[in-house]
Design brief:
Length: about 325
């Protein structure tokens, strides 16, 4: 399926692009990873600092857990919408060494990852799953009633887990084993990427309304106490997947279908930092210490790290 066909199908079905991961190559674990060169609009180029394809079967989300010096990657490894039990989590070093490709198994189609107080939280279809990081064991599985397609999640300082239901146009809050609707309807647009930033929830949308022909997604924030919405950039960005803070008052996002890493300045100005062409860019991690963006190339079955120090000058 061509890149254009993927985009058309997303619009036609009003579904998250992750529904289309089944069109990815089934397995290229035996093939050495192809170097990927990202190109900025200025012409500046960045080749991957490291690239891994070993057992990276449909990587959707990358999460850097500084406390354990680990990079966790969710691997769909099957149909992205089926309860096939083939999904799992890989554990790598921040420099791309695969420590355990099947660190935790028994998942279905895992996507967003975040951690709080020694627990790695995972969004998996209609479940929110808790994993004890030290023991590498699943400690709880909560089925979220009414969820259609849980996608990304974020953790608050009090341990609340916020999870986006991209196709349900809702954001749920999970606390003490109970899920409730945090926000829903037009205010959340078609939510995907989430990140808690102080007293607000950052949200990157796939598009600005339920209508598949609506404007491209944008970045906004919801006040955790009041739910009040603040648009952080008036510029439409695209199919936003990952949302990270750049440490300078701005944000680093991924536009998954366009294969782009995008920067949003504190003033809301948008610019493309990197363009991977047909290599889509799913839910990334940002290594602030090394100034590297770690990108799951979902359909290409590989994960790469890119130096953005020169791009953020």
């Amino acid at each position: 399926m061509t890149h254009a066909s993927l985009r058309s199908l997303v619009a036609a079905t009003a579904a998250s692009c992750l529904f289309l991961a089944c069109s990815a190559p089934a397995d290229d674990a035996e093939t050495p990873p192809t170097p990927v060169e990202a190109v900025a609009p200025s012409g500046e180029r960045s080749t991957a600092v490291w690239m891994v394809s070993e057992a990276m079967h449909a990587p959707e989300s990358a999460f850097l857990h500084t406390e354990s010096d680990s990079l966790f990657v969710s691997l769909i490894d099957g149909d992205p919408a089926e309860r096939d039990g083939t999904g799992h989590i890989a554990r790598l070093t921040p420099d791309g060494e695969v420590l355990d490709a099947t660190w935790v198994t028994g998942l279905n189609a895992p996507k967003g990852l975040r951690a709080h107080d020694g627990t790695l939280w995972v969004a998996d279809l209609d479940e929110v799953i808790a994993i004890d990081i030290e023991r590498a064991e699943i400690t709880s599985r909560l089925t979220v009633d009414g969820a259609i397609f849980l996608n990304d999640l974020a953790t608050g300082p009090d341990g609340t887990v916020y999870v986006s239901d991209t196709n349900g146009f809702r954001i749920f809050a999970v606390k003490d084993g109970t899920a409730s609707v945090f926000a829903e309807g037009e205010v959340v647009e078609s939510p995907n990427g989430l990140l808690v930033d102080g007293g607000r929830l950052l949200v990157g949308s796939m598009r600005q309304a339920a209508d598949p022909e609506s404007a491209p997604g944008r970045l906004f924030a919801l006040d955790l106490a009041t739910g009040e919405k603040t648009v952080l950039s008036s510029e439409p960005i695209g199919t936003i997947d990952g949302v990270e803070i750049d440490g300078r008052g701005g944000y680093i996002l991924t536009n998954v279908l366009e294969g782009q890493v995008v920067h949003v300045s504190p003033s809301g100005a948008v610019r493309v930092l990197m363009n991977f062409g047909d290599d889509v860019a799913a839910d990334h991690a940002y290594d602030r210490e090394r100034q590297r963006v770690i990108v799951p190339h979902l359909f290409q079955n590989k994960v790469g790290a890119y130096d953005v120090s020169g791009f953020l000058q």
